[in-house]
Design brief:
Number of strands: 7
Shape: elongated
Strand order of the largest sheet: 4-3-5-6-7
Length: 169
């Protein structure tokens, strides 16, 4: 694109990266269609014990970060590094309260995983939440079968909101 990338770095102080691409104009994005979608929490719903959650991501560090946040919220967490691994876990254990899945994974993306989960005996009503940095996820995937979407970066507040909205099974 005919651009220039510059880097200045000072040991112990940090680095600064700059990108200049000629003839590209920056404008503020005001896309109101991009939003996180989660059902409203019913404050009358009874409190439940520790939730059992399955998280799916092909990037190990993403699994660790999400697991840490979920555990910090009091949940019990199982992890899968692929859609196939997640389906195998679900065939063995159907006591999960919710599944959190990345959308961009090789071999089986999050949408394909969600559809496969809904086809498993006993899992048709299992809530599946998409966790993605893709702000255009609604254009790249059908989110019809998902319980909700959490946009990265994942925060404790976002997680608490979705955990509070889990339907009683």
């Amino acid at each position: 694109m005919g651009g220039v990338l510059t880097l200045s770095s000072v040991l112990g102080q940090g680095s600064c990266f700059s990108v200049h691409i000629p003839e590209v104009v920056f404008t503020e994005r005001q896309d109101q269609s991009v939003k996180e979608s989660l059902p409203e929490h019913d404050p009358e719903s009874p409190a439940r014990g520790s939730l059992s959650l399955l998280i799916v991501d092909d990037v190990p560090v993403n699994l660790k970060v999400l697991a840490a946040v979920l555990k910090n919220c009091g949940a019990t967490v199982s992890m899968a590094g692929s859609g196939a691994d997640a389906l195998a876990l679900l065939r063995q254990n159907q006591s999960f309260d919710m599944v959190f899945t990345d959308m961009w994974m090789p071999e089986m993306n999050g949408e394909q995983l969600c559809l496969a989960i809904k086809e498993l005996p006993g899992c048709s009503n299992l809530p599946v939440v998409a966790v993605t940095a893709d702000i255009e996820n609604h254009d790249n995937f059908s989110l019809e079968k998902f319980f909700g979407v959490i946009l990265k970066p994942v925060t404790r507040e976002k997680i608490q909101k979705v955990l509070a909205s889990i339907p009683v099974r």
